[in-house]
Model the fold of this input.
Amino acid sequence: PGADNETALVVAVKVAPDMLARDIQPSRLERATEKIHDLLRRRPGTKTALIAYSGSAHLALPLTVDPRIIDFFSQALSPAVMPRPGDAPAAALALGASLLRQAAIPGAILLVTDYISAGQLAALRAFREKSTVAVHIYVFAADRGVALAAASPAAPPLDRRSLRRAAAALGASLTVVSPDDRDVRRLAGRLEKSLAAARRQRGGRWRDEGCWLLPLLLVPGILFFRRGWVVVYE
Done:
């Protein structure tokens, strides 16, 4: 009972050296952590998992409804703990979809990144062909021309064209970080729509499969209308 109301959100965060760039203060990665906190505050009770990825993807935190644990683990993310350098968003998406499938919970994946190269498009299209999980891309990068703070690592500026191509390959929504809460509000609305659709899809499949039981119930039901099958005691 109530299973149709369960949904889950898998947050996959890029944890690479360029996410330490300070074109967004205090850094792209730290700002992403703060925004994830604000987003989850708008969705209390939602089961959330955390994935960290660079050249490989790893489950940092399984599904939980405790936002304090998510805050703790997300703040501990660092490129220094990642075993393989690089950028493999498709691996993170595959891990997130596998997690939802094993938990048997409808959900969506939030891909937190700063840049997706054209070389990743084929892998992203392949993921979309195999999975029906909704994906939302959340981008943390400043426009070209914004100066990097002192001691900031080099990082590519915001490339909307490449990101739109990646979103199209995934059939995903695209949200770019903003200095206020407009991005969080917009993303929260998009997540609500996709999670509600996932709930309806799951409920629809359950009702469709149940109709096959109807003939089995009708056969013994007809027998109860035969004369003599009911005994009345007076």
In short: Strands lie at 8-14, 47-53, 57-64, 107-113, 134-139, 173-176. The longest helix spans residues 182-210. The radius of gyration is 23 Å.
